[in-house]
Structure formats: structure tokens, C-alpha cells
Amino acid sequence: MKAAAALLALALAGCSGSGSGNGAAGGDNAGDELVITGGGDAQGVDTVSTGPDNAVVEAAATPMRERVAVLGVLNKRNGVEREITLKPGQAARIDGQVTVRLRACERTAPWEQDRLTGAFVQMDVRREDQRWHRVFSGWLYKEQPALNVVQNPIYDVWPKSCAMTFRESGADTVPASSPGASSAKRSPEAEGGNDTAPVESPSAAPSNAT
Fold it and tell me: What pTM was computed for the model?
């Protein structure tokens, strides 16, 4: 439950930080910082690198930089849905009009009761003034999309998966005892056995003849 609670807390923080922004904090011209690393694929998607996000703390699982998230992007005007695969610190520019950045992705451990798959996403859209405007920044969740939504009339984005693994053991891991095993210390006789032959009790004295 602790991991699920942490994801919910991040969702609330993402809700407070989502929406349109102004100035540098809002990323009005955030597209200027992008460096194109590919020529685009058949769907018009360019994968770009935005550098590592040092503000993200790595959990005791797959390091954040090695995780892989799959995001869905929908153009509401033409109904075209695309699927993009990103690592934290990468972004995808679609049709030259929208940029989707992945800052982090997370999912609850298999032993948690509440299963959540989340991604911290930033979306920048090029408007008629040809400037990039930040329209969303926050956590999105696959299982509970209502926790945070992208309020944009043209584009929508949501997480589909986050590929990561969890450590099964660590320095503080204590192995569980085998079923039925007793924690009481066994006596030396029980551990090593008793090789001494049993002493026969003396037989009763014969009774006097009558």
C-alpha cells in the first residue's frame, strides 16, 4: 500500500502543476530546448532527447533512466491514435505540432494491493503564433485516468505501460523459516544423536523356592 499511496500523492501534486503555464516555468517556448535525434518515422514521430531529470529520485527497483514507457497519443480532430515508446528524459514530436516528454514512469510492486501504472508527462503544443506552449505537466495513470486529465481540445495522452522490475531481496532481507521449523535450540543429544548403548536394568532377584 505504501507504493500506491506514494503514486496517489504524486497524482495530487501533478494535478496542482498541470495546465497552461506562463513564462519559463510554463514552458511557453519549451520547443527551443529540444535536440532532434531522428528523422521521424512513418507516422511522423521524431524522438528527441531532453536530458536526464535529476529531480527524480530512483526507487529500489529498475533505475529510472532504464525504464521504458509506452504512451498513447490521440489527435481528436482526425481521430488518429499513435503509440510512442520513450525512456525518461526522452520526448516525441508528432507532426511538428505537439511534443510529448516523459520525465518518469512508475508502477506499484506486484505484492501491493492497489495496482497503478503512472507516467509523469509534459505536453507542449505549437500554436498559431508558432510558439510552443506548455498545456500539461503532471502524472497520468492507466488504471485511474480520472486522477488527472489532459485538458486540451486537440490532443490527449495517456500511459499504457511502464517496463520495470523490482528487487526481490536486499541487504536487510531476512529469509523466512521453513514451515514447521522450530526456533528453539536443539539439545546436543538431539543434534548429534546418542551413541551410548542403553543400560539394561538389573533383573529382579529370583524368589526363594518353597
Answer: 0.58
